[in-house]
Amino acid sequence: MKAGYICLLLLMGASVALTACGNTKNKKAESNIVGNDKDEHGCIASAGYTWSEVQKDCIRLWEKGVRMEDVADKEKSAYIVFAPDSLQVELFFSGDQPNEILDRRSLPGGDYAWNVEDDDTKNVRQENGKWTISQRGNLIYQQVDEAK
User: Fold this and answer.
1) Nearest in space to 88 (alpha carbons), one of 78, 101, 79
2) Nearest-angstrom CA–CA distance, 29 and 97
């Protein structure tokens, strides 16, 4: 009887230990699940979503934005995302460069450009059917051809 009791205790201990290991594995697996990485806005980065201030929504840049390529370094890129009313444009840059929001301004010829009244800001406009980003009169990004 005493040997049976000891066996029962050992089996119960082994069962608890296996269950605990299984729960740890499940918790670890849950933390690695795609979609389990919401940011403060509820955007799921692992699914490609990022917060857009001008859209006031979680977006996928390749779906809502226009892809731009750095003219000096083809490894760098940017996206421009327009507000629904087109009064602002948000610039998303690769790397650690912070987003910038620019306001729409009327040009003398009737077209528009997006910038901030500051000499050092970026300037977004459409030239020859392509979107461009310039700074201090120098072209720094241009729209990527879709055929590439």
Assistant:
1) 101
2) 32
Find the Cα–Cα–Cα–Cα dihedral 113, 119, 121, 125, rounded to 10°.
20
Cα–Cα distance measured from residue 145 to residue 132, given in angstroms and rounded to the nearest whole number: 12
Opening angle at CA 58, ends 69 and 95, nearest 5: 35
pLDDT tens digit sequence for 74-87 = 889 999 999 999 99
> Could you tell me if 101 and 113 are in contact, meaning their C-beta atoms sit under 8 angstroms apart?
no
**Residue 95 CB partners (closer than 8 Å, separation 6+):** 76
- Which pLDDT does position 18 carry in this prediction? 46
Distance separating alpha carbons of residues 120 and 123, to the nearest angstrom: 9
| Cα distances (Å, whole numbers) of residue 33 to 2, 19, 42, 48, 86 | 47, 21, 16, 14, 36
User: pTM of the prediction?
Assistant: 0.72
